[in-house]
What we know:
Layout: E1 4-9, H1 13-24, E2 28-34, E3 42-43, E4 49-51, H2 54-58, E5 64-67, H3 71-83, E6 87-90
Parallel strand pairs: 1-2, 1-5, 2-4, 5-6
Antiparallel strand pairs: 3-4
Amino acid sequence: MKPLSVGLAGYGVEGKQRRTCIDQHPQLRLTAVCDQLFTNSGVFPDGVCFYPDYKQLLAKQLDVLLVCLTNDLLSAVTIAGLERGLHYFVKNCRPAKLKIFFQ
Protein backbone atom coordinates (compact mmCIF):
# COMPACT_ATOMS: atom_id res chain seq x y z
CA MET A 1 0.00 0.00 0.00
CA LYS A 2 1.41 3.38 -0.92
CA PRO A 3 1.71 5.93 1.90
CA LEU A 4 -1.03 8.54 2.28
CA SER A 5 0.01 12.04 1.26
CA VAL A 6 -0.46 14.44 4.20
CA GLY A 7 -0.81 18.22 4.23
CA LEU A 8 -0.26 20.05 7.50
CA ALA A 9 -2.00 23.40 7.99
CA GLY A 10 -0.23 25.25 10.78
CA TYR A 11 3.47 24.78 11.46
CA GLY A 12 3.89 26.19 14.92
CA VAL A 13 4.71 24.18 18.04
CA GLU A 14 1.81 21.76 17.63
CA GLY A 15 2.25 21.44 13.87
CA LYS A 16 5.90 20.52 14.32
CA GLN A 17 4.92 17.92 16.93
CA ARG A 18 2.39 16.45 14.48
CA ARG A 19 5.09 16.35 11.81
CA THR A 20 7.23 14.17 14.06
CA CYS A 21 4.34 11.70 14.34
CA ILE A 22 3.75 11.74 10.57
CA ASP A 23 7.44 11.22 9.84
CA GLN A 24 7.51 8.17 12.12
CA HIS A 25 4.45 6.50 10.60
CA PRO A 26 5.27 4.14 7.72
CA GLN A 27 1.91 4.67 5.98
CA LEU A 28 2.06 8.48 5.96
CA ARG A 29 4.21 10.86 3.92
CA LEU A 30 4.27 14.58 4.65
CA THR A 31 3.89 16.36 1.33
CA ALA A 32 3.47 20.02 2.31
CA VAL A 33 2.90 22.41 5.19
CA CYS A 34 1.53 25.93 5.41
CA ASP A 35 1.82 28.65 7.99
CA GLN A 36 1.13 32.37 7.79
CA LEU A 37 4.57 33.01 9.28
CA PHE A 38 6.28 31.76 6.11
CA THR A 39 7.12 34.79 3.97
CA ASN A 40 7.40 32.80 0.74
CA SER A 41 6.97 29.33 -0.74
CA GLY A 42 9.76 26.82 -0.88
CA VAL A 43 10.96 23.32 -0.22
CA PHE A 44 12.62 22.00 2.93
CA PRO A 45 15.83 19.97 2.44
CA ASP A 46 13.82 16.73 2.86
CA GLY A 47 11.53 17.62 -0.07
CA VAL A 48 8.49 18.82 1.89
CA CYS A 49 6.97 21.94 0.33
CA PHE A 50 6.02 24.93 2.47
CA TYR A 51 3.60 27.77 1.76
CA PRO A 52 2.37 30.94 3.49
CA ASP A 53 -1.25 30.28 2.42
CA TYR A 54 -3.48 27.26 2.96
CA LYS A 55 -4.92 27.54 -0.57
CA GLN A 56 -1.47 26.73 -1.95
CA LEU A 57 -1.30 23.74 0.37
CA LEU A 58 -4.69 22.49 -0.79
CA ALA A 59 -3.61 22.77 -4.43
CA LYS A 60 -1.22 19.84 -3.79
CA GLN A 61 -2.27 16.24 -4.38
CA LEU A 62 -3.22 15.24 -0.81
CA ASP A 63 -5.09 12.40 0.87
CA VAL A 64 -5.13 13.79 4.41
CA LEU A 65 -5.26 17.26 5.94
CA LEU A 66 -4.14 17.90 9.52
CA VAL A 67 -5.34 21.27 10.80
CA CYS A 68 -3.33 22.79 13.66
CA LEU A 69 -4.48 26.40 13.43
CA THR A 70 -5.92 29.06 15.67
CA ASN A 71 -9.70 29.37 15.94
CA ASP A 72 -9.90 32.35 13.57
CA LEU A 73 -8.61 30.20 10.68
CA LEU A 74 -9.85 26.81 11.79
CA SER A 75 -13.25 26.70 10.11
CA ALA A 76 -12.24 28.13 6.71
CA VAL A 77 -9.33 25.74 6.28
CA THR A 78 -11.22 22.70 7.57
CA ILE A 79 -14.21 23.38 5.31
CA ALA A 80 -11.93 23.88 2.31
CA GLY A 81 -10.30 20.51 3.00
CA LEU A 82 -13.65 18.80 3.42
CA GLU A 83 -14.85 20.28 0.14
CA ARG A 84 -11.86 18.63 -1.54
CA GLY A 85 -12.90 15.30 -0.04
CA LEU A 86 -9.81 14.95 2.14
CA HIS A 87 -9.57 12.87 5.27
CA TYR A 88 -8.86 15.30 8.08
CA PHE A 89 -7.84 15.79 11.67
CA VAL A 90 -8.62 19.06 13.46
CA LYS A 91 -6.69 19.78 16.64
CA ASN A 92 -9.13 22.20 18.21
CA CYS A 93 -12.60 20.97 17.46
CA ARG A 94 -14.42 21.16 20.78
CA PRO A 95 -18.24 20.93 20.80
CA ALA A 96 -18.53 24.60 21.77
CA LYS A 97 -16.59 25.50 18.63
CA LEU A 98 -18.66 23.38 16.25
CA LYS A 99 -21.15 26.18 15.65
CA ILE A 100 -18.54 27.98 13.50
CA PHE A 101 -18.89 25.20 10.92
CA PHE A 102 -22.63 25.76 10.61
CA GLN A 103 -22.68 29.51 10.08
